[in-house]
Amino acid sequence: MSLVIESADTMAIASGTQTTVAASDTVQTTLREVRQVLATIGEDLVLTAAGVTVTISDQVASPGAFVVKSWMATTTGNTAPIAATTFGKKVHWIAVGK
Questions:
Q1: Which of 3, 47, 33 is nearest to 97 (CA)?
Q2: Residues 35-48 pLDDT 10s
Q3: What does the alpha-carbon distance between residue 46 and residue 54 come to, in Å, rounded to a whole number?
Q4: Given this model, what pLDDT does residue 96 score?
Q5: What is the mean pLDDT of residues 54-77?
Q6: Considering only CA atoms, which of 93, 94, 89 is closest in space to residue 11?
Q7: Does residue 90 surpass a pLDDT of 60?
Q8: Which fold has domain 12-97?
Q9: What is the pLDDT of residue 48?
Q10: Which residue has the higher pLDDT, 20 or 49?
Q11: pLDDT at residue 2 greater than cutoff 50
């Protein structure tokens, strides 16, 4: 793993655990600006909790925030991802920014 510092600005790392409450959850970090974020579901995958993805929020409108999206398989025979309907799952995340 490498961290490239783009300028003289100091980069920082924040991490935490979010419990899902919806298919799309906003996470507020202690950072002023999120540049990169990584998240993983904190338990075994099941049909109704098949994984998570993250999107960095608009850092002007929501500084230091990102969105965790939870996904599930459509059916047992169709693993195409759709928005999850089972919540209360732990998601571990690491964000890099300023």
A1: 33
A2: 999 999 998 888 88
A3: 19
A4: 94
A5: 94
A6: 94
A7: yes
A8: Immunoglobulin-like (2.60.40)
A9: 85
A10: 20
A11: no
Contact yes or no for 88/20 (Cβ under 8 A):
yes
The dihedral built from the CA positions of residue 27, 86, 52 and 43, taken in this order, carries a sign that is: positive
Amino acid at 84: A
Q: State how beta strands 90-97 and 12-19 pair.
A: antiparallel
* The two three-digit tokens of residue 47, written as one number: 């049909």
Question: Which amino acid is present at 30?
Answer: T
Whether the per-residue pLDDT at 94 is higher than 80: the answer is yes
Break the chain into its structural domains and give their ranges: 12-97
Instruction: Locate 45 and state its tokens.
Output: 């995958």
Name, in order, each residue with C-beta under 8 angstroms of 63's C-beta and a sequence gap of 6 or more.
Answer: 32, 33
The length of the chain, given as a count of residues: 98
Which tokens is 74 given?
């459509």
Helix (H, G, I), strand (E, B) or coil at 29: coil
Place of tokens 């990169």: 36
**Please, what is the Cα angle at 9 between 4 and 10, to 5 degrees?**
75
